[in-house]
Each structure stands twice: as C-alpha cells, then as structure tokens.
Amino acid sequence: MTHLPAIPPRVRLPDQQREELNQTETREWIDSLAYVLADGGRKRSAELLEALDAWAYDRGVPIEYKQSTPYINTISSGRQPDYPGDMELEHRIRNIIRWNAVVMVIRANKASDGIGGHLASYASSAELLEVGFNHFFRGAGAGKDRDLVFFQGHISPGIYARSFLEGRFDEARLNNFRRELQPDGPGLSSYPHPWLMPDYWEFPTVSMGLGPLQAVYQARFMKYLENRGLKEKGDGKVWAFMGDGEMDEPQSVAGLRFAAYENLDNLIFVLNANLQRLDGPVRANSKVIQEFEALFRGAGWNVIKVVWGSKWDELLTKEGAPLIIQRFERMVDGESQRYAAFGAKELREQFFNTPELQQLIAEWRDDDLAQLNRGGHDVQKVYAAYQAAVQHKGSPTVIITRTVKGYGLGESAEARNVAHQVKKLDFEAMKNLRDLLDIPLNDEQVEHLEFYHPGEDSPEVQYVKAQREQLGGFMPARQAEYPHPTVPDGKFYEEYAAGSGERELSTTMAAVSIMSKLLRDKQIGKYIVPIVPDEARTFGMDALVPRVGIYSPRGQTYTPVDSGSLMYYKEAVDGQMLEEGITEDGAMASWIAAGTAYAHFGIPTMPFYMLYSMFGMQRVGDLVWAAADQRARGFILGATAGRTTLAGEGLQHQDGNSHLQAYVVPNLKTYDPAFAYELAVIFEHGIQRMYVEGIDEFYYVTVDNENERQPAMPEDHERVREGIVRGMYLFQPAADAQGQELRAQLLASGPAMGAAQEAVELLKKYGVAADLWSVTSYKELHQDALLTQRWNMLHPTEDPKVSFVASQLDEQSAPGVLVSVSDYVKLGAEGLNGHLSRKLWTLGTDGFGRSEAREELRDFFEVDARHVALTALYALKDEGKLKGEVVAQALQDFGIDPERQAPVLR
Description:
The chain is an alpha/beta fold and 906 residues long. Helices cover 42% and strands 10% of the residues. The protein contains 35 helices and 20 strands. Strand 13 (668-671), helix 27 (676-692) and strand 14 form a beta-alpha-beta unit. Helix 2 packs across helix 3 and helix 29 (753-764) crosses helix 34. The longest helix has 44 residues, at 15-58. The protein is elongated.
C-alpha cells in the first residue's frame, strides 16, 4: 500500500466552523467516490472502499461492521432494467388467477365444511410467482438449463388456478380441491405432494423448513452431477419460495453457510416477508427483513431486498429522502402491519408524523397514499431483483420481499392476524373482490361462486402459454423418464453366498464391500453415490476415499497430512463420495437429491447413505417422510445397529427403535439382515425393483459392527433368496428332530442371531429340538399378513389365502413353540401375533441403553442365549409339555435372578 505523508496535528476550531469543515470534507469524499463510480464502475468503487477499510483497520480505526443495509430497496429505481412483459395483460392474468384461487377454496369449504385451504399466502405472493412463471422459471424443455422450483406449500390454490388458466385442469378438477376420493374424477391434493400427483408436483414443501434445506442440497447435487460429467453443464437454477414465519424452523437456516461455502450461485431463495405467522406478527417489535438480511449476509449470501413499491421512489428521490429513510428505520413491523390493514388515513397520521414529513406529502390525496405499496407487489421491482439474482455469480442469492398477507382480500383478511385461517368470504366480500379484480361476472354468478376462464383464444391464455413455451414448458411438472441401467445379475454377488471362511467381518463391513464392488461395475458404478455424515472411518468406508474421492467444487488445494498413506484424504472436483460433515439433516437432504435425480434430470443415481442407525430415523424422520412423498429411491444403511452390538457407547447411541420408526413409512422397505449373503440379496433385489422395474420405494437396511465368520448361504438358493426378500427363511433345521416331542421354532434377526444359535445348543440339554429361522424383515411379514387378512375378509365365500409367515410356521412343517429374539424393541415381532396358529413369544431390547460390553448388555436386556432358551422352555410349560420345576431348574442353571427389575423399568 502507498505510504501517505505524515498527518499534521488536528487544528482546534470553533464547533460551528468544525461542523462546516466536516460537511465540506464529507462532500469532497463523496464527490471523489462518485467520480470513481462513474469512471471505474461499481466493482472498482467496492475495491477502493475495501482498501480504505483495511488501511483504517490497520491503524486502529473502530469500523463497525454493519450486517444490515438501510431499510430500502437494494436495487434503486435508476438501476432497474426495463420490464420485458405486457404489464397490463399480466395484471389481468394475476387477477383471474387470484379470483379462481379464492373461489376454489371457498367452494371446497361450502361442499364440505372445514375441509380447509389457504387464501392469504397466495394473495401475498401472486406477483412473486407470476413474474417467475412469465419470465424466469425454465421447464424441462430447457434441457440442461431447466430450473427446479420449491413452491411454498400454502400457496397451492394459486398454482392450481394458474394450471386451470393454462388448460391443464378443468373445472371438475378444481371442484375436487382437497377432495381426492370423489367418484367423479381425480382431485387436487391440499399441498404439493408428488406421491399423490406424480406428474405434477416435484417437491413436498408444506412441512415447513424442509423446502429451504432440500433446495440447498438440490443445488449442490446439480453441481455435483455436472462436475462428475453425468449432466451437461448448464445455467439451471434452484428456486425456493418460503415465508418469513417459516424461517423460525431450524432446518430453514441449517444449510445457509454450507450453500455459501459451496459457492452455489445456482441457488435463489425468495423469502416472502408478509410479516405474519399463522397466529400473528413474526417480529412485531422489530423489522424481520433486517434480521434476515443480517443472517444471510453473515452467512455469505448475496442479499437483495425488495421492500417498497415504485410510488415510494417519488419520495426517495426528493431532497427529503433522508427523512423518509430515517422514518423507515424507526418503524417496526407491528406498526407497518397496521398501515397495510388500515390504509391511507393511518399512513398519513401515523407514518408521516412530523411537520417535515407532512410537508413531503402536502399535495398528496389519499388515493396517492394508497399507492405507496410494498415492493413484493410491484412487478417491476420483483423483475429487477430476479434479473440481478440470475446474473449473480459466486454465491447464492436471497431475495427478501415485503408483501401483505391476504393482499386484496378485503377487511376480513388483508394484513389481519387471522388471515392465515380465513377459508371463506361472504357474498359482499366476494362482490368487492370481483370489483377489485375486475372479473366480468354478474352478482348471480358471484353468488354461485363461479370460476372465470376468459377462453382458450383469449389474449390472457395465449400469453401465459406463449411465455411457458418460450421458457421450456409448463411448471410444475414431474417427468420420471430415464434410461434404465443394466444392473449386475446374481453372479455378481456369488462371493457373498460362499461365506467368509475363517475371516471374520461385520455386516457393516460386508455392506461396504458390496458397495465398493458396485462402484467398480462398468454399467452402474458411475451412478453409485456414497453418502456419509463424517463417519467414514467409523463405518469402514475410509478405503473408498482415495479410490473415488470426496466431492469438492474447489478440488484439493492443499496436501493432506496423510498424503503418504494408502488411505489418504482425497478431495476432488469429480469426487464421487459426499462427505457431509456432522449433519444428518444435510446428509439426508443430499440423499433425497440423489434419490430423485431420475425424475429431475433423467439420471438414475443410486444413493447409499450410511449413518449411525440411532441418529437416523428418529433424527431425520420428517425428511424420510418427505423422501417417501417425493418417490425417492436408494438405500439408507443404519450402521452400528441394534441396542447391544455397539459396545461401550450407551444410552444415546444404542439403537433399538429405528425399525419401529421406519415401519410407519408406507413405501420404505425395512430389513435387519444377519449375514453378508442376505445383504447381497437385498441390494440386488432393491436395485432391480427401483431402477429397472421403476418401483417407487426405498430401503432401510440395518447393519451391525460385530465381527463374525459369515456363513455360506444354505442350499436351495431360490428358496433362501425368496425368504430373504419376503421376510424369513429356515436357516438351520434342528438336528435329529425326528420323533422328538419337545420342539421349538426360534426366530432371530440381525445381531440377535448369535444368541439364537447358542440357545439351540442350550435347549438340546433339556431335550428340546429347535429349528432356527432368520427373519430379515418383520415389516414385510406383517404387511403381507395384513393384506392376506384383508383379502380373506373381502372374499368370504372363496378359499382363504395363507400369509407367507403362516405358511412358513405351519404346525405340521414347523412344530413346537414359537420364540423370536431381536436387538430391537419387542413390538416389531409382536405384530405377527394374531396372524399365526399359536402364540409368538417375543424378546427384544425395550429400555434405555447402557455403557457396557456386548455380553453384559445382552444379559441386561434379556436377549442372550440363556433368556432365549428360558423363554422356549416356559412356552413349552405354558402348553403343558413341561413341568414348572424344569423351568425353575433352568433359571438356576442359567444363573438368572427371577426378582431382578425388568430392563424397560431401569
């Protein structure tokens, strides 16, 4: 930096003279900066200010960093681009959509009182959406440049009303809003739900907070696909619309810093700040827009504020502009909401509340004041913000728009605290709305709540269609079309059917081995997406790192400390693994992006997300449900699974409940395999169904960390393979069981298999011959049993069907008592009771975990071999086949204290 001459001592001057000098000095600096701005542009001006800032900071000048800019528009009127559309025609289009959206909700509630729906959210965001639909959102026809749009969930009536105008829906469809089970045709789901409308919605967003988080990782995955050469590089954007109240959700802000770190300049958030939550103001005593600006600027985002409409520019360009800006700064949101609710009179008396401010509007009538609108309702302001956002490079952009909740809905809803709950408007309110929107319907038509369509050949319809054609087709639209890959056949997995011989390995390591082999496959290897939340070494995935690399848009700009080792830490622009850091939510959002790429980009990526099973389903359950709704495909691997397999960790880490939590997701297949060959069959089966047959399901598979010799698959492979997929198969028949009176059928899964195998030997000492079954999925067995029961009930005159589990445990082929043991809570197996010819006795790990070794843990939870054998003996006693004294002796033999407290109570 150039050295400046020594600064002379400051001359003492009278206060007035000093103030005049300060003003002159300030004016000269501003004039100098104005010259730089005119000559060198904004970038050079910013460089100069940064240089001055650094110089001053180095000399101890206390420069306060301001995260918030003045409470005015980021883009001044002088920097606005010309609006490219027909503003008058677009205004008519918005009015038609507003009308039909309101009519649709009111008709639904008139047909079925209390059916619900929302009016106020779309009313506040119509301009934000329509500018996007007409000029920015690029559909599938745009190819590599197509956009993805996360629509705010509560605005669905407006999106449906637009599709009606476009001819995609007819009146009958609109009449079935929130009535999806009507006999006269398909309905419209309450909110964006791809499961219910698979050709229309792409993202479920109404579980608030999940849209913003998923948008971040969708934008990142778009870059991932491009950097790996799976997708042609384009200029597509991910748009996410959200409300200011939604930003209270932790997930809404969880990915902000990550988005900036990844330089996601293909990501645009549009934050609709109508200042109201469901119950009332978001931040009544401050300004939420300023809060959001500070949050996003601090996280490294490009922030564009759209606060005030064009009429305000007349005041902000006058000499009194500083007074207006000062008044903006003093205003709080609770006050601002009143101006929106009560109009010009309130604004004149309360906002312009000094003589100086009154002077600025001395010649203004109330009609003039009424035009002082919010920026989010001004299409010129919105267009300028969107244009700046799509042109911005280097970081994500948030556009914070000031709107009015219930805009245009009249006194019953506009800017009122009850706006979110308004579902109905009376006849007078509807007539007023008709007049306000200039809809050509007479009073009788209004009273009958008629929709309005201007006709297929009308200028309005022709305009919206032409704009969408130019931008690549209608939106929203979901197209699940992709080239079905050639997947490995059974020979690919043969090594796992042979067992591990003398080598010991856990099912976690077996899963990594299969994944590693899939990554090397010439047909689908490139589609495999390994995902891990900073636990690669814990799960044994570290060997994959130097081979496939960790994805990083920056590549690796340093030499890793372990660069000389075999398994060094490798980051690469085309890296295949997603190492997400300590964020299960973020990793799950990545999994969803990878699991839905087949529908968004026609690329059948296959995500394998490995996580601590305890931190899976219970921590990201809402995202798992969203994945199901989106028809995501792939594998979630719950590692270090089971309550007793993870020695030493204790209460927080030991998982005995994730299968129960996974059970409630309808299209989530759940498996708890005990052996490597079972894993191989599950992976082969899942890949075939999801990516070749195109079935919309996904898989939760738990794997443990207990090293054991992996057995070979029993003979009769076809029977075993069918049993693995359907939920159970006979793994080990009882030896010399012919003619024995005392029989037992032991059902075991996952980490509990070892205890069951030992129990078989213990029972021999009491004259009991036990068959051993491997149960890979209680959910599959239970659902099949329920479906069988339902079929039989609905076909009472036909021969009843037999469920798979009942056929396997038939008393003739599988005699004796039934005992199941699992490293999960008992309720999973208990679901089979009532579907079998006799009682199933269940053992499981109900209760809190403990920090201990495996043997002690299994004794504590009463799932070790002794308790399995004891349960079988007691079941035989309960059937009258053994005396109580035999069971009492077993208690002594096994050293089990009959008076100790149950683990679930401890």
